[in-house]
Amino acid sequence: MNHSDDLQHLADCSSCRQRFSENVLPFNAARRREGARAFAAAAAQLERERESASDIVERQLRATPIEEWPGLAESPALRNNAALEQMSEEVRKRIERKPVEALAIANLATSIAETLHANAYPPAVMAQIRSTALRDRANALRYLGRLDEAYDSIETAEARLGEFPGAAHDRAIIWLVKAMIQGQMDLFDESEQMITAASLVFADVNDLPRFFQAGLVYGNLLGRQKRYEDAQRIFGDLLDVARSTGDDKTQARLYNNLGHCAIYLDDYARANIHFSESIARFTDLGLRAEVPRTNLGAALVLIGKGQIDSGLARLEDARRVFIDLGMMGEAGLCALRIIEVLIDRGDTEQARVLTGAVIDEFEAAGLDTRAVQAVAGLQSSIDADGATAETVRTVHEFVQGLATDQAQAS
Amino acid sequence: MNVIAADTFDPMIAGLAPVVPGEELEIDELDFARLYEDNFDLLVAIARRKFQVPEVDAEALAHEVFYSYLKRKDEIRDLHPWLIGAICHASRYFWRQNGRRTEQLDHSWAVLRPDPASAGINDLLPAQLAAREILEALPPRYQQILRLRYYEGYSIREIADYLGVTAKYTQKLVMRCLRRAEQMYNAAPARKKP
Predict the structure, then answer these.
(1) What does the pLDDT read at residue A169?
(2) Alpha-carbon distance A397 to A371, whole Å?
(3) pLDDT tier for residue B12 given thresholds of 50, 70 and 90
(4) What confidence tens digit (pLDDT) does each residue in A11-21 have?
(5) Per residue in A85-110, pLDDT tens?
(6) Does B2 sit within 8 Å of A163, measured CB to CB?
(7) What average pLDDT does this structure show over B21-30?
(8) On chain B, which terminus has fewer CB atoms closer than 10 Å, C or N?
(9) Chain B positions in Cβ-Cβ contact with residue A33 (cut-off 8 Å)
(10) In this complex, is the C-beta atom of B173 within 8 Å of any C-beta atom belonging to chain A?
């Protein structure tokens, strides 16, 4: 994990650290004391701001309609580092389910950060504040598929840190986001270089979560290029690290990814072992919802590869667990996948029975009536012998879209 | 390179009292000041010794690393590996930024004012080339020690301080490096020895 053994030793051994420092430096107590004083003053300022900010951002966002959020940039209570840190957290919380809101908050944060008085914080801290806001904005734009704007924003974020070599960790996080954007833009070589550079920093500063994240991004990037053997090697290496650090959650994710690689490499026996390992770990961790999701993902890949029976078995297993967990929306979506396969096979009678079951389940769970109507429409089509796999896919997309809308509205 | 110093940070705008020499610090500030004082020398030493960053720049880099720590402190698991990793990458980035800024020697000046060290170059050149060839074939640590001793002219004591080892051990190291260089020189195929 570290760049050289002696530096690793220095990190662990206080007497060697002292000897290493003392041997080379002329002692300039006054200059060091002045640096310490400036650092401590800045640290105390940031701490005071954090303590007094409470949950200011959450309250102001809740009390203000989204279309008026840009106006919050003028609010004095939000024009400081602590509030901007809270905004970054709000972006993180929303980015997957409500990317539009995440972008609105990131835009607000960027607007504040870029107009803070230049001397409000030491220049290096100011650069971090600005680059973080721009990075969050880039990430939100990435989730919305606005890749050119995302790229511009992440480039600006990187430029804000350009004059500050000491902000190595922040820069590496920016590189990781940049790599993800480049990956989505199909700039594979550039993305790979960025991930490699970022991973080195994460390893050296002992930031294991981001080290794993960078590795997963890298593996997925290789998968997108159909370089499944390379991806398998990366996930395997990461798995060794995750095992040695006792990180079960990451192990579960890596086994899942290894399972997908094995399917693409036509090694179904190994894929089954990997998926079982993944499911076992998610179960041990109490992440029960991840188990059927793992099965669902595996099933879709298996069906895509023509392994219909194994895929169907996993879909049925996933649906059963979703029902056990009371996740009727996801159980219904899973059923629609099964119906698609059944219709494709010409097994319309079983498809019709299952469609009826989904309607009953949706109604019993009080799900959106539009979802019930859509599935009822599908049943009518099956009855009229006019349903195709494409019809089922359309209904699936519609129901999934409703679920996403509901998540965004909640 | 942006040198961060107290004078570029306006404490009035930041909502802080101006820094007065000898003024008492609050408890939290004392903790941060101690953290800085306990580790500053180490970071500067790494930047200077491992990456040959000039002293003033090394101090600025270390200062920046501490400021960078303030925004990340809640997610840092182990302080010392983080600080050491950060200063190493800061030093590399410093050289990536500054490595290309070295001004090149104006060729016309070089012709007008020849380097005094070039006198008798025709006689010395073969031996120098052979020495350089041997030096470059040595392991990096051996190269570094011989360069410090014979190119830079440092004393054994100074090299010992630089390496963080005793003078006696340094003397042994230099002898070992010379022996290795000699072995390689003698083993080289059919060289016309000066």
Answers:
(1) 96
(2) 11
(3) very low
(4) 777 777 777 76
(5) 999 999 999 887 788 999 999 999 99
(6) yes
(7) 56
(8) C
(9) 37
(10) no
Residue B3 C-alpha, separation from nearest chain A C-alpha, in angstroms: 9
A15 in any annotated domain: no
Q: Note the pTM of the prediction, 2 decimals.
A: 0.71
**What is the amino acid identity at position B184?**
M
Q: Do A165 and B75 touch (CB under 8 A)?
A: no
Residues 6+ apart with CB under 8 A from A205: A168, A169, A172, B76, B81, B82, B85, B86, B89
A41 has pLDDT over 50: yes
The whole-angstrom distance between B78's CA and the closest CA on chain A is 7
Cβ within 8 Å, pair A205-B85: yes
Contacts of A213 in chain B (CB under 8 A): none
> Is A79 at the interface with chain B, CB within 8 A?
no
Can you tell me the distance from the alpha carbon of A32 to that of A85, in angstroms, rounded to the nearest whole number?
29
**Residue A184 maps to a domain:** no
B45 contacts in A (CB within 8 Å)?
Answer: 20-21, 23-25
Q: What is the DSSP letter of A185?
A: T
Which residue, among B7, B16, B29, would best test binding to A if mutated, counting the most A CBs under 10 Å from its CB? B29
Say if B114 falls within a structural domain: no
Tell me the residue range of the domain where A361 lies: 328-410
Q: Which structural domain, as residue segments, surrounds residue B165?
A: 123-187
Q: What's the pLDDT band for B20 if we cut at 50, 70, 90?
A: very low
**Spatial contact of A345 and A311, defined as CB atoms under 8 Å apart:** no
Distance from the Cα of B100 to chain A's closest Cα (Å) equals: 15
Q: What is the mean pLDDT of residues A52-78?
A: 93
Are B127 and B93 contained in the same domain?
A: no
Helix, strand or coil, per DSSP, at residue A368: coil
Residue type, A5: D
Q: What is the pLDDT of residues A159-191, one digit of tens each?
A: 999 999 999 999 999 999 999 999 989 999 999
What does DSSP assign to residue B165?
Answer: S
In the predicted model, what is the mean pLDDT of residues A105-131?
Answer: 95
